[in-house]
Design a protein that fits this description.
The chain is an alpha+beta fold and 276 residues long. It contains seven helices and 13 strands. The structure holds biotin. Residues 42-44, 66, 69-72, 75, 77, 86-88, 129-130, 140-142, 158-160 line the site of biotin (BTN).
Length: 276
């Protein structure tokens, strides 16, 4: 375990006990080293810097609070202190750049598996990376890759999960469409137990991806995908597609069949479910 700033480390705080996360952690590739920060701008930024400076596969940055938590599409991620999980993991997968998006989909499966273990409700995945329960967002994934033309050099896998975030303390702009594990269980969640479980589920799914390929994970992803055959509107940077969501292809692109029968493979965009 590495505490980057001794004055601000978990050792000085009784708030998150890293020893409890590490004790009994059963993982092959992830959790090779932990970096804990009481406060940072964004764990993705910290992990990127570490990766650029040679961090090895599986190093994990966890922060108790983020001042500039980042979401997809330039959005921010609300990151109050000591209630949620904000973590970023350095990965060095042997993947071609075209397959880098598989990391996000792999992580969504692991996240949904971990969440299922803590609540009696089934989470769903909203392509590509939102985890929802009862239509409310509980967790998000922000992957940032560094690639050469031939291979992925590293991926920073950033994950935010609303754990013990009271609905009443959420900013009004997210309260109507977000939730937390505590709100869904009706009781606070043991954050260390959740983090350990998540690392183990990520480690298992990452192992399947590397050793057996994305095709082995795709059925599990599809089982959490709630929008199959449902009408959707997908907003991309340069166009909008309206049609029925059909699932994902081997690259993790969302397949949407429009009214004229054409199937669009969408790499990046925002999916908005429409009324049937
Ligand atoms: C999204 O759903 O838009 C993605 C949210 C990702 C948030 C996490 S919190 C830890 C990591 N650090 C960040 O700045 N963002 C990710």
């Amino acid at each position: 375990m590495v505490a980057d700033d001794p004055d601000k480390s978990s050792a000085a705080s009784s708030l998150l006990n890293l020893a409890r996360i590490e004790s009994g952690l059963d993982a092959q590739r992830l959790g090779t080293k932990f970096h804990y920060l009481q406060q940072t701008d964004s764990t993705n930024k910290v992990a990127r810097r570490l990766a650029e400076n040679g961090a090895t596969e599986g190093e994990i940055v966890i922060a108790a609070q983020q001042s500039e938590g980042r979401g997809r599409l330039g959005r921010s991620w609300v990151s109050p202190a000591d209630v949620n999980l904000y973590c970023s993991i350095v990965l060095r997968p042997k993947l071609v750049p075209a397959h880098a998006a598989q990391i996000t989909l792999m992580a969504a499966v692991a996240l949904a598996d971990a969440i299922s273990a803590f609540i009696p409700l089934e989470p769903t995945i909203k392509w590509p990376n939102d985890i929802l329960v009862d239509g409310k967002k509980l967790a998000g994934i922000l992957t940032e890759s560094s690639c050469t033309s031939e291979r992925v050099e590293f991926v920073v896998l950033g994950i935010g999960v609303n754990l013990n975030f009271p609905l009443a303390e959420m900013p009004p702009e997210i309260r109507a469409r977000a939730s937390s594990l505590m709100e869904l269980r009706g009781a606070p969640v043991d954050r260390e137990a959740f983090i350990r479980r998540l690392i183990q589920d990520l480690d298992r799914c990452y192992g399947v991806l590397l050793e057996l390929g994305f095709a082995k994970l795709a059925p599990r992803w599809e089982s959490y995908f709630a929008l199959r055959n449902r009408p959707v509107r997908v907003e991309m940077i340069d166009q909008i597609v309206i049609g029925r969501a059909k699932g994902i292809d081997a690259q993790g692109a969302l397949l949407v069949e429009s009214g004229d029968g054409a199937v669009h493979a969408i790499i990046a965009g925002d999916v908005i479910p429409l009324a049937d």
